[in-house]
Structure to design on (284 residues):
């Protein structure tokens, strides 16, 4: 409750006003417009004023892309805090806090189902869980998603959102880069499509591995996609980078992604791609 409402409620001849829930409004990070949270959610977390694509949680992503009746696949078990890492907090405490705030075991989740009737296994990175960072658990979940796709003879689609590798796991997090690359090779040996949907942000070791190894790369409008940050690049090459550098539209113009697709059209576009890459006869 604000100071004004607190004082107002102490005045006996004024009716008391109930406090407003903190999550009633959403402030767009792009244009600053205040939007009813319900309206924002119903618009698939896209600002109705400026069309800015906000971040989505994994459960919302699954509901957006998959037909009703999909199955969430169990998260693989990995060794937690293998390096006994501690900075200002213990790593185990950071994991515990992330699980409490998100309700998820880690940053990458898989679901099996169909997209407009086409079978598919979908993996989604949740930026809300420690910035979607890639560690042992994310690597294991990615491999599990590939294996589930091979067993189901279905395409594997990954929606990326990550700040890169998880520093608390050191070299073990970087080992997930070749590990996921090897899993993609197995998927391709099985003749199954691998499609990547790049969302804001996709950076670091994730970009340097499975995020850029797809048969098709789709980006959401305005998504930040890159390896190192813009400031680091400018300091290294001692040049000012062009406007829009590392954004989806710039990467499309320079051949780094195949298409930029609005969120409302994403499911239909994936269904069309699956018809080309994995026809019904082949899926059967």
């Amino acid at each position: 409750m604000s100071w004004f409402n607190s004082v107002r409620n102490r005045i006996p001849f004024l009716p008391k006003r109930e406090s407003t829930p903190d999550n009633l409004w959403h402030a767009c990070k792009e244009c600053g417009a205040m939007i009813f949270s319900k309206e924002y959610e119903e618009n698939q977390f896209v600002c109705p004023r400026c069309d800015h694509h906000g971040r989505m949680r994994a459960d919302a992503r699954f509901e957006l892309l998959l037909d009703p009746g999909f199955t969430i696949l169990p998260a693989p078990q990995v060794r937690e805090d293998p390096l006994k890492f501690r900075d200002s907090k213990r790593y185990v405490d950071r994991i515990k806090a992330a699980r409490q705030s998100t309700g998820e075991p880690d940053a990458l989740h898989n679901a099996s189902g169909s997209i407009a009737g086409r079978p598919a296994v979908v993996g989604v990175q949740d930026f809300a869980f420690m910035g979607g960072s890639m560690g042992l658990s994310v690597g294991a979940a990615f491999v599990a998603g590939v294996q589930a796709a091979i067993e189901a003879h279905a395409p594997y689609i990954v929606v990326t959102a990550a700040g890169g590798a998880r520093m608390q796991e050191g070299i073990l997090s970087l080992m997930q880069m070749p590990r996921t690359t090897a899993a993609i090779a197995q998927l391709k040996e099985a003749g199954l499509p691998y499609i990547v949907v790049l969302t804001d942000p996709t950076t670091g070791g994730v970009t340097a591995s499975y995020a850029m190894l797809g048969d098709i790369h789709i980006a959401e409008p305005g998504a930040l996609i890159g390896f190192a940050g813009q400031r680091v690049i400018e300091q290294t090459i001692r040049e000012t980078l062009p406007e829009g550098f590392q954004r989806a539209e710039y990467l499309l113009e320079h051949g780094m992604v195949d298409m930029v697709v609005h969120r409302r059209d994403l499911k239909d576009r994936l269904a069309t791609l699956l018809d080309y890459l994995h026809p019904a006869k082949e899926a059967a």
Q: What stands out?
A: The radius of gyration is 21 Å. The chain is about 35% helix and 15% strand.
